[in-house]
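User: I'm writing a tutorial on reading structure tokens. Could you give me a worked example: one chain, its sequence, then its tokens, then a sentence or two explaining what the tokens reveal?
Assistant: Sure. Here is the example chain.
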Amino acid sequence: MKVSVLTIGRYSNHMFYSYWHQCSNYFRWGGDICRITNKRCVKDCVVMCERSHELKIPSFVLHVYGCNLRCKFCWSEALYKSLRIEKEPQQVVGDLVCRMNALNSDQGLQSSATTKPSDLKCIRITGHEPSLQWDHVLEVLQILNDRPEFEDFWINIQTNGVEIGKPGSRIDLDPLRSLENLNLRIEISFKGVNPTQFEWLTGTSHELFHYQCDAFTRLWSIKSAKIDVVPELGINHCNKLRGKKNEDLGVQIIDEKGNKLNFLDFDPRFEQAVLSKTSLDVSEENEF
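And here are its predicted structure tokens:
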């Protein structure tokens, strides 16, 4: 893929401090070295550190700004109230390199870490909705692909898929095939398992649920040894409290009548497009 015109990406680092807290079991030393040594740099940096729930290792995370849904359960609503950071692809990669160097050069962190900073091999691109800035994301990925320090990195792209699957979508997936030095994991975050659930949870048209299914079909067609495609039930909930037997105490998602949503009530189109190929990842189901 050739980068012709640089696109501006919109990001938020609103979750900077809370994400670093997730790394405390790996980096057992003070606080985030970037926060301590250069607060001014951190203010404009789009790169945060977190614990990867998918790979169970520390990882970098990029939070894009802007979404095409307004989900009732959205935890990132606060991002709309935060400052928006705008950067070109080279600047985003520059932030990643800067953050890698800062972690790897800190002696205190190196000596006390249970996991070395050099072991960070994952970048999660999430938000809000990455597909709304698809050209920018592709340019970032191409630059990463051509940088030796990012060879064999896992890139985890999380999307609701609506923009990818809508009729006449202009999103080009073919350039992903050329990223031979990266490992891609693309997660489609399904907002329910049928159109009725989708409409209730997102406050948008039930038709967009079918766009999600079509997006999965498109992405599945480019699945390869270097590109994994995963359907997720992108809703935080749990069936029970940790250590408790009473399921009624768990965090449940309900409909407008107060009835618990049945996430096994699969739409036929969802079964054909998704479940006939692979199983639905429900890793967002957490016990509190």
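What the tokens reveal: The CA atoms of residues 236 and 284 lie 5 Å apart. Residues 9-275 form a domain with the TIM Barrel fold (CATH 3.20.20).
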